[in-house]
Structure formats: C-alpha cells, structure tokens
DNA sequence: CGCAGGTCCTGCACGC
DNA sequence: TGCGTGCAGGACCTGC
C-alpha cells in the first residue's frame, strides 16, 4: 500500500514520539512478520531488547531506526498493508497486530505496534554500512541496492537518464524498479507519467533527457504534495502514525479515475475519459490523449 | 471471481 | 558449455 509519502509520515511520527526511547520488551505475535529476519524470533528479541533507539531514517519505502551507537538498525518495510502505531499500552490490540515493542522514555511507557494484514511487510535487524557514493551516510546492508529517491538531496537525474538509455524495458517498469530510483509505487508512477505526458509502455532507450527530467520532477512534485497534506495527521495524543482511516488525500489526477474526465483535456474544453489497462499484472490509468501510446510500445 | 498502493525469486534469453 | 546479466512473470498473503 504505502509509497514514499506514507512511509515518510510514519518516519516523522516515530521521530517525534519514539526517538531516544529504550526498548524494554519485544513481543512477536506472528513470526511471519519476521520472515526477513532470517535468524529467527529469539535472536530478534534478544538483540533488540534494551537498545536505545536513535533518529529514524528512510530511503524510498524502507524505514529504519538505528541503535547501538549507529552500528545496527531496526528495519521496517510496510509492504502492501503495514502500519506502525505508537500508542499507550492501555489501548486494546488492533486486529492484525503482529509485533509489539514496548519502549520507555523518562517515565513514559509506550508501545510501537507493527500491524499488517497481508504480511508482505515486516521487521528485521541489520548492520549499518556506509553508502557507496557517500561514505558518511549509513544505511542497512540490505538497503544498499535501493536507489536514491526523488526527494533525496543527492538524487541524480542525469545518472538515472544514462541508465535508462541502456535499458531495454518500458518506462513504468523502470519507475517501479526500486534499484534505479526508489519510493515510487503504482499510484505515483501513474501520476508522474500523467503529469509528464508520457505513456507507460514507452521504451526506455528512446527517452530524451528532457522527458526523463520531466517524469522525475513530476514524481517529486506529486510526492511532496501528498506529504504536505499528510504531514499533520499524526499529531495526536495517541499516534496513529499510519492509521486505518489515515491515508490522506493525495490529489490524484489519474489513479483510480477510469471512466472519468481527464482534467487537463477538460481545461481545453475537450472531453476525454481516463482509461484503465492491465499492464505488468496491475492496473495502469492514463489519458489516451495526453499520453498517446508510443509507436513502438513495449510490454 | 476480481481486486488491492510491494518485493523478490525463478527461469529464460542472450553475450562472452 | 558455463557463467553473469537483464528482464518478465509469478509467488507470496489476506480480506473485501
């Protein structure tokens, strides 16, 4: 479910409510949420208990909380349906609660709750290593293959352009490839394509520098906008960092709008309906006028 | 039955 | 032939 803006909202919520807290207890209610912690539940509990949590970090859709003087981190991936809640322990357990991490800061006791219906997400512990391109930056070893996201100060559009030109794939697949650039999922891929007026099946090797720059600026813009709208949603006594009701209005122009009028065409007095296609085993939404199918489309 | 916003493994094709 | 790489497709889950 969550793409970059949702994950960033979670990061800010954790930053505000859990930074410099100490883990006093860890309870695993469903081992499947530890699938990526290969050495198992007992190790996870033993190593995390007693740790002082540092400021949460993010790259793309990966979120991590460093501990142990920056040597390791608790890594969180929300998958399709994951949520992180910071709550008072007296609140009843939500449905699909998978992992409970009790934390204290001063005399305040809270719980960091990982909730996940579909179990594509999960938690694990990992060592922090220097980023290859900027050694002063640390990230989990399992996250080193993830490219920088468009909101990252060191995101390099020119480098992405060069890689795209060498690829024999289509633009949407490239946008969704987290090793090329991260944080973009199905929704924001469609939104970025619409804003840049490019079709999802466009062969990557034919893209111009200008088109690549357009689609990544569009991705950056739409994600910043979503973030600015979601930024206040965790400011509550009991923080629903990423709540059930809590997906904020993303100001979507195409995603989920099939059969409805294209806003851009409408402004010109033209009535075009947004279409939905099965593409790469998922739904893709686009305007057939603003985003014409390229002469040589690629699956 | 179809649908859901993610990730990663497998197997294939290709070049060296 | 074997190996590495890039790419497409499916598996992984539950619930509406």
UniProtKB/TrEMBL annotation:
<dbReference type="Pfam" id="PF06831">
    <property type="entry name" value="H2TH"/>
</dbReference>
<feature type="active site" description="Proton donor">
    <location>
        <position position="3"/>
    </location>
</feature>
<comment type="similarity">
    <text>Belongs to the FPG family.</text>
</comment>
<feature type="domain" description="Formamidopyrimidine-DNA glycosylase catalytic">
    <location>
        <begin position="2"/>
        <end position="121"/>
    </location>
</feature>
<feature type="binding site">
    <location>
        <position position="118"/>
    </location>
    <ligand>
        <name>DNA</name>
    </ligand>
</feature>
<dbReference type="GO" id="GO:0140078">
    <property type="term" value="F:class I DNA-(apurinic or apyrimidinic site) endonuclease activity"/>
</dbReference>
<keyword id="KW-0234">DNA repair</keyword>
<dbReference type="InterPro" id="IPR010979">
    <property type="entry name" value="Ribosomal_uS13-like_H2TH"/>
</dbReference>
<comment type="function">
    <text>Involved in base excision repair of DNA damaged by oxidation or by mutagenic agents. Acts as DNA glycosylase that recognizes and removes damaged bases. Has a preference for oxidized purines, such as 7,8-dihydro-8-oxoguanine (8-oxoG). Has AP (apurinic/apyrimidinic) lyase activity and introduces nicks in the DNA strand. Cleaves the DNA backbone by beta-delta elimination to generate a single-strand break at the site of the removed base with both 3'- and 5'-phosphates.</text>
</comment>
<dbReference type="Pfam" id="PF01149">
    <property type="entry name" value="Fapy_DNA_glyco"/>
</dbReference>
<feature type="binding site">
    <location>
        <position position="167"/>
    </location>
    <ligand>
        <name>DNA</name>
    </ligand>
</feature>
<keyword id="KW-0479">Metal-binding</keyword>
<feature type="domain" description="FPG-type">
    <location>
        <begin position="253"/>
        <end position="292"/>
    </location>
</feature>
<keyword id="KW-0456">Lyase</keyword>
<keyword id="KW-0227">DNA damage</keyword>
<keyword id="KW-0378">Hydrolase</keyword>
<dbReference type="InterPro" id="IPR012319">
    <property type="entry name" value="FPG_cat"/>
</dbReference>
<keyword id="KW-0511">Multifunctional enzyme</keyword>
<keyword id="KW-0326">Glycosidase</keyword>
<feature type="binding site">
    <location>
        <position position="96"/>
    </location>
    <ligand>
        <name>DNA</name>
    </ligand>
</feature>
<dbReference type="GO" id="GO:0008534">
    <property type="term" value="F:oxidized purine nucleobase lesion DNA N-glycosylase activity"/>
</dbReference>
<keyword id="KW-0863">Zinc-finger</keyword>
<dbReference type="InterPro" id="IPR020629">
    <property type="entry name" value="FPG_Glyclase"/>
</dbReference>
<keyword id="KW-0238">DNA-binding</keyword>
<comment type="subunit">
    <text>Monomer.</text>
</comment>
<protein>
    <recommendedName>
        <fullName>Formamidopyrimidine-DNA glycosylase</fullName>
        <ecNumber>3.2.2.23</ecNumber>
        <ecNumber>4.2.99.18</ecNumber>
    </recommendedName>
</protein>
<feature type="active site" description="Proton donor; for delta-elimination activity">
    <location>
        <position position="282"/>
    </location>
</feature>
<dbReference type="InterPro" id="IPR035937">
    <property type="entry name" value="FPG_N"/>
</dbReference>
<keyword id="KW-0862">Zinc</keyword>
<dbReference type="InterPro" id="IPR000214">
    <property type="entry name" value="Znf_DNA_glyclase/AP_lyase"/>
</dbReference>
<feature type="active site" description="Schiff-base intermediate with DNA">
    <location>
        <position position="2"/>
    </location>
</feature>
<dbReference type="InterPro" id="IPR015886">
    <property type="entry name" value="H2TH_FPG"/>
</dbReference>
<feature type="active site" description="Proton donor; for beta-elimination activity">
    <location>
        <position position="61"/>
    </location>
</feature>
């Amino acid at each position: 479910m969550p793409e970059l803006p949702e994950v960033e909202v979670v990061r800010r919520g954790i930053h505000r409510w859990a930074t410099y807290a100490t883990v006093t207890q860890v309870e695993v209610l469903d081992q499947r949420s530890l699938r990526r912690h290969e050495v198992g539940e007992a190790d996870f509990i033993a190593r995390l208990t007693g740790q002082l949590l540092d400021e949460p970090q993010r790259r793309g859709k990966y979120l991590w909380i460093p501990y142990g003087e920056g040597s390791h981190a608790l890594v969180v991936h929300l998958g399709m349906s994951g949520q992180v809640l910071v709550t008072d322990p007296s609140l009843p357990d939500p449905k699909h609660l998978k992992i409970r991490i009790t934390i204290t800061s001063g005399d305040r006791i809270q719980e960091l709750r990982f909730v996940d219906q579909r179990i594509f997400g999960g938690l694990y512990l990992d060592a922090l290593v220097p980023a290859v391109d900027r050694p002063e930056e640390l990230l989990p070893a399992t996250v080193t293959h993830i490219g920088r996201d468009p909101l990252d100060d060191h995101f390099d559009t020119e480098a992405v352009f060069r890689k795209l030109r060498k690829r024999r794939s289509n633009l949407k697949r490239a946008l969704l490839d987290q090793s090329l650039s991260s944080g973009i999922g199905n929704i924001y891929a469609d939104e970025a394509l619409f804003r840049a007026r490019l079709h999802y099946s466009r062969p990557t090797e034919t893209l111009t520098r200008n088109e690549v720059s357009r689609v990544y600026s569009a991705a950056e813009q739409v994600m910043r906008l979503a973030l600015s709208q979601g930024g206040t949603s965790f400011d509550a006594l009991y923080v629903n960092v990423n709540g059930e009701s809590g997906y904020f209005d993303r100001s979507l122009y195409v995603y989920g709008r099939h059969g409805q009028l294209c806003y851009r065409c409408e402004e010109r007095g033209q009535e075009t309906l947004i279409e939905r296609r099965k593409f790469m085993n998922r739904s893709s939404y686009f305007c057939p006028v603003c985003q014409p199918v390229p002469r040589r489309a690629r699956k």
